Amino acid sequence: MEATYYIRETRYGDLPAILEIMNESIRNSTAIYEEEPRNLAYVEHWLEAQKKSGMPVFSCLHNEATVGYGTYGQFRPKYGYRFSVEHSVYVDEFHRGAGIGQLLLTALIDRAKADGLHRMIAGIDADNHGSIRFHEKNGFVKSGHLKEVGFKFGRF
């Protein structure tokens, strides 16, 4: 019998898989506006910083392998924005379309509600139609378009 997908708090043992998911996204998409791959020290520091600031990082596991992760962080550093967060959900390229994004987003929304947060924001590249549809399906509404603010793959 095949194991199901499940969500839990990220552990340090998940970080090599999370690093692979991050770097695949950096190499092949505009979901992360970085051009240089990250390393294990980067994701270790990132996880420590998230935990220290009280921000969740969830891993999705399948057959005990980490196949996706989700997190959120402070939207902007000003005090007046303290009830708003910007989230990220990433799934490894071999498990997309299996409902992992939904599991992770639901976990993040539940945690945000429990933390007393008011608004969760998704910063999505305009060409990422799949992510836009996914978020619309989950009640997110387009509220702005920042034109040509990111540069990657030789274009804005």
Automatic annotation (TrEMBL):
A Pfam family: Acetyltransf_4
Asked if the keyword Acyltransferase belongs to this entry, the reply reads yes
PROSITE patterns per the UniProt record, alphabetical? GNAT (PS51186)
Keywords in alphabetical order, please. Acyltransferase, Transferase
N-acetyltransferase domain: residues covered: 5-156
What Gene Ontology terms describe what this protein does at the molecular function level?
Answer: acyltransferase activity, transferring groups other than amino-acyl groups
SUPFAM superfamilies to which the protein is assigned, alphabetical: Acyl-CoA N-acyltransferases (Nat)
What is the name attached to this protein's record? N-acetyltransferase
Q: Which organism is it from?
A: Arachidicoccus ginsenosidivorans
Give the source lineage, highest ranks first.
Bacteria, Pseudomonadati, Bacteroidota, Chitinophagia, Chitinophagales
